[in-house]
Specification:
Structural class: mainly alpha
Strand content: under 5%
Number of helices: 4
Largest sheet: none
Order of helices and strands: HHHH
Number of domains: 2
Helix content: over 70%
Distance between the termini: 14 Å
Shape: elongated
Radius of gyration: 22 Å
Length: about 110
């Protein structure tokens, strides 16, 4: 029985999420670097250093965790349905001269 949702759209949105994480990573790494530098300030008490280092580590875990979750979701996609839908979309895209919106509409009209 075919799925009633678009595996291709989910895969494309996951690609977009990965791109956003890629764009955010340098900023998060800068935050991490700043937190570590702050923790190394002269005479900073341990009760201040510890939460700063925890924050820095949390940023790293956050990035890795996001990527792991996306990979896990991607692994749940039905591969055969995804491949079939992708081929169909490429055909529609060709018919619509590369216009993704028109190709999407064309696919929906024949469901």
């Amino acid at each position: 029985m075919p799925i009633k949702w678009s595996a291709r759209q989910v895969a494309e949105n996951l690609d977009h999420l990965e791109k956003i994480i890629d764009e955010a990573q340098p900023i998060l790494k800068l935050c991490q670097k700043n937190a570590v530098a702050t923790a190394k300030l002269l005479n900073l008490p341990e009760y201040m250093k510890q939460p700063l280092m925890t924050f820095a580590n949390d940023l790293d875990y956050f990035i890795k965790g996001c990527r792991c979750r996306i990979d896990r979701i991607r692994g749940l996609l039905p591969k055969n349905d995804l491949a079939r839908e992708q081929r169909r979309f490429e055909q529609w895209l060709s018919l619509c001269d590369g216009d993704r919106e028109k190709a999407e509409q064309g696919m929906r009209s024949f469901l």
